[in-house]
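Data availability excerpt. The first of two example chains:
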Amino acid sequence: MVSTTVAPVRRDREPPRPPPPAVVEAEAQWIFTDEELLQTPSILDGMSPEEERSHRRKGVNFILQVGMMLKLPQTTLSTAAVFFNRFLMRNSLKARAGYKPLHHYQIAGTALFLATKVEENCRKMKELVVACVRVALKDPNKLVDEQTKDFWKWRDTILYSEDILLESLCFDLSVEAPYKPMYEMLKYYNLEHNKRLRNAAWAFLSDSCLTQLCLLFTSRTIAAASLYAGCRMVEHELPSEDGKPWWEVQFVKLRDIRRACNLMADIYEETPPKDGEGSIYAGLRSPDDDISFSTPGSAHTPTNGPVAENGNGTGNGTGNGHAATKDVPMRDVGSGSEEGELEG
């Protein structure tokens, strides 16, 4: 039998409060169903769902690469990824008669520019443009200044596209990154100093940026799912309170946590492990008809897979090395043909 440690509740802190109704209502406008994600403007214009997801992933990779060059915090990169994904719910990436779409790199760069202002982590326009050019051309040492054509092309594109992005977002710039509620949950259960759990939860959030989780679930749900992933990895059991399971205490729906974890498992379970390391998502899958969902060692633990013991989530990356900003090679941002499209 797997031994677990039950995390005590921190009694010197106030119990969790439900999200304000205004925040819930605002966030609900950007939550979509699986069916709606298959009817985005790009897909309706003839792009395959797989190709659209690939463009989304490459766009977020671009954000992570540029953000790493500019030493931006992860919360800013997360906000930029949300802006990028929301933009593509209302705009197509596929050209048609009378319509020339923005390249996904251009959208990503503009989303990051807007996120730096929203999150008050501003960088000089020159620094942002130089980083965008270097990432787009896959040359981190390329000389870029005001005398180069690429500099002015990217600068003008970002400034022009900012208005388009703002209109597409309906000027709704209030985004709560899941990192803060996740850390509040860690503090509530007195787990903020558990490095392995904290890193695993952070890895889940970093990996989720490369997916469409932000369009399917609220930030609080994603935070709760990341906490569950960390607990599975380090074999911690979150306690119930007054007969209520931990997810109800945190005002999160059980079904949503299960779906979020299953989605992450879908993406990574078939990916070959890196250097023999296991994925932290290996034991997260829960059957759709499983009405229970708890951490290892409890009476309701799903018995459909072992907990990965070799995940190596780090503060800057991912549990299995797929989405860490420090591990994403420059060549993964895109292909040479895409750069040709951008220049055209």
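And the second chain:
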Amino acid sequence: MLLPVSQVASLVNALNLTWLDKVYLNAIPNEDLDNTDLTVMLLQETDSSPAYLANNTFKGLAMGVEIQIFYKVDLDDDFNPLETEIALMKSFKQAGWLIVSSQHHTTDPDTNQITKTIYVTKNEMI
């Protein structure tokens, strides 16, 4: 079984999102921290705990992933982040992930990028 962040990365990569330039797992490399010319997604694991408890054991895992989107500073005038986020969340739902939380948009104080954080979870049998 792949790590939760790897499962989410595989799904995101399979979607071929034209608005997304890079996907990072666990951390953004130092050399890319200040790059505001790209829209990037950072995936971090939030949960990997036992699930489907029965007969004094567990038969699955509850997996959680935090998805952070950092939009490039110069977005196209016709680009609508909210529409892309809704489509992304629908894709996760279709793939069996539950949208736990979709946080409000914020502005990164260091880079001035609009950011969005979404939390997803999925229980999987082992």
